[in-house]
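Lecture notes, continued. The same structure-token format from the folding unit now serves as the input rather than the output. Read the line below as a description of shape only.
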């Protein structure tokens, strides 16, 4: 993971053709992440995993619903929403999930992500009852992710809109050992290059479904 630069994020509730899936999985991206907010079901996740299983690309399930956890992924990423107003998104749901899947956890070693959601119009922002942090608060969340919780990943999630590159730069300077993931609004090679200057890994998701060819260009932009 320390050598990754690019991840494609697929929503199991959205349609993607077999041809497009083949192109993504063989594009040179470092991993395919499966995750979303609305209409996430066990069957949807399982069906997408079955289609991905034909490829050697690294497969990640980012867990958003406990009843949609499917075995067979290479990694399981578990968000801890640092700017949520509700403790359940930092601890309670994680406690419940670990309790239910303790035996399996011994084999998969889940990866916990410190999430900071920066788009108040995003469904995930509303779903997790988050509060919008300013730049100073965001830097404090980054500090907490690394120094308080010792999380391997701090994820700046703009979820559908292109973020503030200067803030991403500041966050990158705040972190030393924790990896900085950036996701949100990357629609072309230029945006991919800009955010990759500061983030360790960029996540490209929505543009897969809105402009597939430009989404594909983001791989070559950060992995020449």
């Amino acid at each position: 993971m320390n050598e990754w630069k690019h991840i494609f994020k697929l929503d199991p509730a959205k349609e993607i053709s077999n041809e497009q899936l083949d192109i993504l999985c063989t594009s040179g991206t470092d991993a395919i992440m499966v995750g979303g907010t609305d209409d996430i079901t066990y069957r949807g996740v399982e069906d997408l995993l079955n289609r991905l299983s034909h490829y050697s690309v690294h497969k990640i399930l980012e867990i958003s619903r406990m009843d949609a956890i499917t075995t067979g992924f290479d990694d399981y990423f578990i968000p801890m929403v640092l700017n949520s107003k509700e403790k359940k998104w930092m601890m309670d749901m994680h406690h419940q999930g670990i309790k239910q899947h303790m035996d399996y956890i011994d084999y998969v070693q889940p990866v916990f992500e410190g999430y900071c959601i920066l788009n108040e119009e995003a469904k995930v922002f509303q779903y997790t009852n988050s509060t919008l942090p300013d730049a100073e608060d965001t830097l404090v969340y980054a500090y907490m992710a690394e120094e308080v919780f010792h999380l391997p990943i701090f994820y700046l999630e703009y979820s559908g809109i292109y973020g503030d590159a200067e803030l991403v730069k500041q966050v990158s300077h705040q972190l030393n050992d924790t990896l900085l993931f950036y996701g949100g609004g990357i629609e072309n090679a230029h945006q991919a290059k800009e955010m990759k200057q500061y983030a360790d890994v960029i996540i490209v998701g929505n543009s897969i479904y809105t402009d597939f060819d430009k989404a594909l260009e983001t791989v070559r932009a950060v992995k020449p």
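Point for the exam: The chain has one domain: 6-222.
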